[in-house]
Amino acid sequence: MSTDQQPRANNGVFRTKTVEQSIRDTEEPEHALRKSLSAWDLTVFGVGVIIGTGIFVLTGKVAKENAGPATALAFVAAGIVCALAALCYAEFASTVPVAGSAYTFAYASIGELPAWIIGWDLVLEFALGTAVVAVGWSGYVRSLMDNIDWHLPASLQGPDVAGGTFDILAFVLVLVLTVVLVLGMKLSARITALVVAIKVTVVMIVIVAGLFFIVGDNYKPFIPPAVTPEGGGSNWDSPLVQLIFGYEPTNFGVMGIFTAASVVFFAFIGFDVVATAAEETKLPQRDMPRGILGSLLICTVLYVAVALVVTGMQHYTELSVSAPLADAFKAAGHPFYAGVISFGAAVGLTTVCLILLLGQTRVFFAMSRDGLLPRFFSKTHPRFRTPYRPTILLGVIIAIVAGFTSINELATLVNIGTLFAFVVVAVGVMVLRRTRPDLPRAFRTPWVPVLPILSIAASVWLMLNLPGETWFRFAVWMVIGIVVYFLYGRGHSRLGREGQAAKY
Ligand SMILES: NC(=[NH2+])NCCC[C@H](N)C(=O)O
After folding, report:
1. Residue 244: is it exposed, middle or buried by C-beta count within 10 angstroms (0-12/13-18/19+)?
2. Is there an atom of ligand 1 within 6 Å of 276 CB?
3. Distance, CA of 502 to CA of 2 (rounded, Å)
4. Residues 13, 19, 21, 25: what is their CA dihedral angle, to the nearest 10 degrees?
């Protein structure tokens, strides 16, 4: 390989892979992906991965525990944070149209170690994201089973249910999907479109049918006054800001809206996944920004509406935490609607789960293509031609985690990981304008550096509203990642080896 295009390749941990080099890698025939997606495909794909457990489950949980009717405001706040980040993602996806999302982008702009950190972070985001969605799915399946008076023993309903310990449904779902991926069964574009249609229809039913059951009194008070949680005192489940500034920990009130925003943020994650499809897009320069911003906008409008309707249908203190949208209709005396909603949610969440599991193999693929993870992980199955090794390994781990962990713990960890990726991408956009002003940018983030800086501040603010415990778990995961990099990736990196070879 020639060395002319590698002015900054060196052997430090900040060695960068040039944008040209990243694109060239994707053009090697044995690694190339087909370019077939349009802006519309991306928007459908985006809405398909975005609408999931966040709106179907977490809405009930945060309304009940953190924000009451003001949950709608929490969705607005989280949506704003995402819109800022989306503008940065749109620039990078249109400048570096390569698989691997924030990982690839960081590799081209900031350097290998930051890229690795982001890749490692994305693995967390996707793996635990799968687990959260599986747990959410299980709640709706149980609500559906309730309708036909069929009940699982409490102990098999998962840790979110009183008396539960193991979520058998979530566990089985992840294992089944793992087998599907190993066998290489693909979601055809038609099925995906159908599922997205079902999901959006169900959300519309909630909004439109729900309007008739709104009781004005349920909105009073719109922002419930702050209360100290049982047990009081500062503890690790309190938001980090409260721990740092030594406030008395509280739920509800204005701070409660931010706590809620940092949780429902989960509902918006996915537009960044759209960016991972850049390499498969026909006209990424034009269509990436359209797909990313379009799907985000559609979801924000739907979410705010759902939050307003659901907190209007039932007093927030009464909402169900495992299947709030369906259960609100049950409470209103309409089990038929409840059944339709549970059915739609169950179908819709299955594909989100599948896409996330699949997305994870893409990130692994990009990292192992670069030599930062062992080639072992990119060996495909001789018959099914799928990366079966990481699929099985991770599938089993995720199934177990989904079975034993509560949805809140999982979701907040996904959120902190994703917000962290947002910060890195915003930094990357600014760095690349400095170092590579010459690159063609079909979409330019407006007001650089003001907007990326605002995006960083907003993301950090939501991160600070996550519990101290979440920060601790995230730190542990990151430390493990850094150790793996220095023990393995640094020495095996393809970029590093090429840099070495070029010297002699
Ligand atoms: N990249 C991710 N971790 N996505 C998780 C899926 C989140 C999706 N918005 C949901 O509400 O279910």
Report:
1. exposed
2. no
3. 8
4. 110
Structure tokens at 172: 């089985």
Query: Distance from the CA of 358 to the center of ligand 1, in angstroms?
Result: 13
Check: CB of residue 337 under 8 Å from CB of residue 209: yes
Alpha helices in 212-320, H assignment, sequence order: 240-244, 253-264, 271-275, 284-313
Kindly state if the Cβ of 273 falls inside 6 Å of ligand 1.
yes
Rounded Cα–Cα distance for residues 380 and 175 (Å): 19
| Average pLDDT over the chain, rounded to an integer | 87
pLDDT at 62 over 90: yes
How far, in Å, from the CA of 459 to the mean position of ligand 1? 17
Q: In angstroms, what is the span from residue 230 Cα to ligand 1's centroid? A: 30
Residue that the structure tokens 């229809």 belong to: 201
Q: Is the CB of 79 under 6 A from ligand 1?
A: no
Q: Provide φ and ψ at 12, rounded to 5°.
A: -80, 170
- Is this structure's pTM higher than 0.80? yes
* Cβ of 269 less than 6 Å from ligand 1: yes
Q: Whose CA is nearest to atom 10 of ligand 1?
A: 52
Burial of 150 (0-12, 13-18, 19+ CB in 10 A): exposed
pLDDT band with cut points at 50, 70 and 90 for residue 437: confident
Residue 11 pLDDT exceeds 90: no
Look at residue 4 and tell me whether its pLDDT is greater than 50.
no
Grade residue 305 by pLDDT with cuts at 50, 70 and 90.
very high
Question: 40-152+189-343+405-496 belongs to which homologous superfamily?
Answer: Amino acid/polyamine transporter I (1.20.1740.10)
- Asked whether 139 lines ligand 1 (CB < 6 A), one says no
Q: Looking at per-residue confidence, does 310 or 272 come out higher? A: 310
Residues 6+ apart with CB under 8 A from 279: 26, 33, 35, 97, 98, 99
